[in-house]
């Protein structure tokens, strides 16, 4: 016989801890939840406001360099690691978590360090640097330990080039790296002479970037305003793209191997499909001065660019305008930016000798979140996205306080562009023979593509 | 040299191969005892060289005449000459010569090299090439002293060996070529001669080993035999110093080879094409004519070679210096596109040489010599093999050298360009392999990094499986294996479980079977029963059965009525609906389901009976309408069918029907008229309103009107009665057109008859004849005649006819050929007539004049169609009749608009009233234009014969002009415009700022005499921004637009100012905002699904660049 008794477990109605959340039954009867559009709109507005309230992108400024930081490399196998080279030839390795220098070579190069990169391989702790002193130096944290007196550690190897180097990048898998000077040279880490020379024309190359997905393809940009693609398999250049102004940096999309972005002198970032370079796939226009560096986020969805206008901008790779602008009071011209490999941070090196660490999403906070918290954030994101065209929300979301200089410059630029456009239109209007065809914005900056 | 020949004759490859193998064996066998020296080879070479110059018959004769002593010398010289003159090979050692001589030089595939080779002469010289070499040989031998007989023998043997090698050797073509050497021109002849040769060979054979198999022409032994025979037979001819001899000599040589082969390997009797060819070749021997020809060709060849010499030298120089001279030559030839190969040459010379030897050997004609030969044979074979190897080597070098010789390289710049282009294309291709992956990622709803292995998009299931397999560790694999072995795999377990589930007890099974059997039994029984019942033919039984069924149904209905009145209602409704449907579907013959159902129940039920009668009547009407009873064949069809179908009312006449309908209509009308008087007090509920005077007045007015109408209608009915009386049934059925009715009325028999014939149609145009006056009234005849008449009319004029129904709509369009097209919807073509006389049945949308001219009430104008009530139709009919009467009274023209058969040749022309001239009716009795009865239909095609009366026939035959149509389409536009304007005006007024009068009525306004009305009324002026000034309205100047100024501005902020980029219309954008995202409006699951972000990354996790396994290994 079963005896029934009125009994309630205390666990049913008491909270174990204070933070315990009591489950409430939820009724989704629409009668009980009227005015859904209005309510969600309000939530979206609030979310937008909250986002802006929490938007504190600047995390840390890492000081140590004496001169401006002109080259930077992230370790593809170590999230924490950033190597920077400065104008005075100093090389520093930083720990982003500790926010401090963990290795340094004060006089790594005579003159400016033009490029740094890691040697491929998980176990490899070697890295390379090139400078205007025509040397490639191989370093290792373990092998070339920093002396107590702070003198420059020994290099693992030093390779002499014929020209002052302007950039370096490494192969994804093999111990191969490419340097740029007046030509692109491909080196084996173990050999003192380049294994291949890739030339096309005689101009100075600004920088070289190896594709990390389609690993045998690399691109260089030169002072002759050209962007040249090479292939290691054929050891030959592939195609040359000449733009209206020269390109300062190239970044390959890690998730779309035939896509690369270029930081152009004309204030714009262009993305290209390497197979059809007669037009840019996207033109990202917001900077008000030359773009000095550009880097794809590891997801391939976003871009970060650093500009001579002292700002860092973040972009959706598919949209034409930046989604955010980062600037700091004392930040000078930005020469190098990198998206960290976990897609969460952005590092920028600028003329002011400081390395800056930013959040990739200004209002996002890392750390473990409860499901509810996460859900709330995601819901808010969705709401913002949904109502982003509604004036009020849009205004909140887009509002940025930028330095006066930037604001003025952008206004001036706007006026200039408009007047230029107007002028063109007027010319067109009074031109009998239609000599001024309308060129799409994506083709405007491109002078031509050739394999010849 | 063999190449071109090869092109002329092709042998099956397999045969050749076999031959090769067989002969290779032979050669090896022979190789053991060869004693011939290199010098012999040299001789041969020299002989060749010299042979160039001389191709004289005399020389040949000399050569033939056993002067083989100086062979060595001669040949050497010949070779030298060849080398020097042709190829500029200066320092040829004897050793080199040997190498050159060696037959392996034949190896190359001649076809390729010789493809482009042509001699100075014509193609006819081709066969001479071979001869040339032979001639050279002969020359050489000629020049040299004939001192050494033995040598000759040896030489011949050696050369034989060479040829044997040749056959055996690497070059498949050699065999062919050898065989074809001489038969290119006279191949057919040779074949014809073949048998003859063989027989001769039989006669003269000395070689016993080949005496046996002669008959099969394809057998090698046979051919060999023939060779031998030839060789032996030749000496007889040698003295003739004939070119034929020379060739015979060649043949001999070859035959020797074969003979030796045969002797060495007795079993070598492959039936080979080679041997065939050899035999063919041999067959050439005796033919002097052929030989002469060949000699001539040979001359040509020699000259051609000499002509080509300088070129070769050039080429040689260009070639690889390290290469042997021969090779260089070979290369040079190839590169020149001259497909001459040194090996070929050498081969030829060799063969030529041997030729000479052979000849000499043959002339000796000693059997002793055979032994010598055999001894030398072995030596030479060995030697030859050595040579062959050497030459092979040289060939290889030559080939290499050949490969090395390419066009001068392009300029580096150009080369780079090309390289880049190719490289770019390649890289593009390689990079494009990512496309699918990238596309998939771009289109993905969600991307999760770093776990989102993008390569997965691309990988096949197979690779996935493979990957899965790899991922297992050793232990896991072992466990999996054990599980599999022990039958614990998923699949096995599932099967087992299924089996378990299927298990049932025996009892259960038995029970189930029993049930099944029972079911089957019952089914069978019921089937049987049904069959039996179905067979019963008794009507009585059927009736009883039916009644039973009905009763059962009734009972059921009763039961339902009691138990479930709602259900009952529903069923009744259903029935009613069914009936309605039936009515709609024109099934009104009391044969429908409803009628059948109702038939037994209608006893005493007046309503039902009446309904059924109505149904029948309706059926008649509709039928009439459909088939347009006026018409000919269809009428008869209809009537026949009607009578057939109507069992119960088989004698029901159209007369009766009409009578019935008429009487009923009249009674109804009168009833209505009566009832109308008493109607007023019935409006009890509206008493208050309707009690008012103006209302009553209005009602009275309306009633009066109705009464008048009814009266009119009744009168018409009454008048119709007379018609019926006069005109008989035809009229009553056909609703005779008034003109005809009138004519009938006037007791004109002719007219009546014609009416009967034409079935109420008004026919335009010729072909319609007057009918006999004694036309019968019988339906059948009547129909037939109508038919014939119409046929005549239609056939004679080949016209199209348009039939109009009473409402002026085109019911049918009939073409003259008898096709009748029924229009899906009646098209109105009946315009209001211009004259007021017959303007009764006007069509409101067709003309304005009509509206003006007719005194008819527009409210009464209705187009009749299926949906029109009976009363309407009846009245319309009457009206039309009345109209026609009126018209008739005026002019005597049949202005009927009811059933008019119009002749329209290509199109129907319906003139606008202004344009229209006249109707020329069938009777041609209508004179005046105004009698058109509202329709103007022109007969265009055959207009001449009929339309004489037309005065102002319209130029445009189009019935509906564009203007008409536009007029129709925008008929009521003005009204709409006015309405809109009024509306706008009202709105403007309403929204205009208004002053408010706050004066309270009564307050401060005292009554009484002498009191001034209050002046200062309290009026509140409109506040700023309140209302919209008329002039300030946004739509002030926009005529056809009303802009709403009442939108609350506070809501603006909720609207996007424009449609955002990816969307094209506001609706699209709105669509995205429709469904709320929150968890208040979604289930937990869908909510979490909705809010899932597109790109998810994890903090602290490195996201590596995209990589797929195939791409990784680069």
Automatic annotation (TrEMBL), chain A:
Compositionally biased residues, Basic and acidic residues: 422-444
Compartments reported by the entry: Nucleus, Nucleolus
Keywords, in A-Z order: Nucleus, Repeat, Ribonucleoprotein, WD repeat
Ranges for the WD repeats: 62-104, 284-325, 327-368
Residue span(s) of domain Sof1-like protein: 360-446
Any one GO BP annotation for this protein: maturation of SSU-rRNA from tricistronic rRNA transcript (SSU-rRNA, 5.8S rRNA, LSU-rRNA)
Region annotated Disordered, chain positions: 407-452
A family per Pfam: WD40
Record CDD domains: WD40
GO cellular component, one term: small-subunit processome
Sequence similarity: Belongs to the WD repeat DCAF13/WDSOF1 family.
Name this protein carries in UniProt: DDB1- and CUL4-associated factor 13
Annotated source species: Coemansia asiatica
Lineage of producing organism: Eukaryota, Fungi, Fungi incertae sedis, Zoopagomycota, Kickxellomycotina
Gene: sof1
Automatic annotation (TrEMBL), chain B:
Endpoints of the signal sequence: none
Organism: Coemansia asiatica
Ranges of compositional bias, category Acidic residues: 58-71, 89-111, 139-190, 265-277, 648-658
Biased composition regions of type Low complexity, renumbered to the chain: 15-28, 211-226, 349-358, 737-748, 832-842
Residue segments, region Disordered: 1-296, 349-382, 585-610, 628-664, 734-795, 831-873, 911-963
UniProt keyword terms in alphabetical order: Nucleus, Phosphoprotein
UniProt subcellular location: Nucleus, Nucleolus
Major subcellular location class: nucleus
Keyword NADP in record: no
Keyword Secreted: no
GO process terms (BP): rRNA processing
This protein's name: U3 small nucleolar RNA-associated protein 14
Top-level taxonomy: Eukaryota, Fungi, Fungi incertae sedis, Zoopagomycota, Kickxellomycotina
Biased composition (Polar residues): 34-43
Pfam families, alphabetized: Utp14
Basic and acidic residues bias: start-end ranges: 72-88, 370-382, 594-606, 769-785
One Gene Ontology cellular component annotation held by this UniProt entry: small-subunit processome
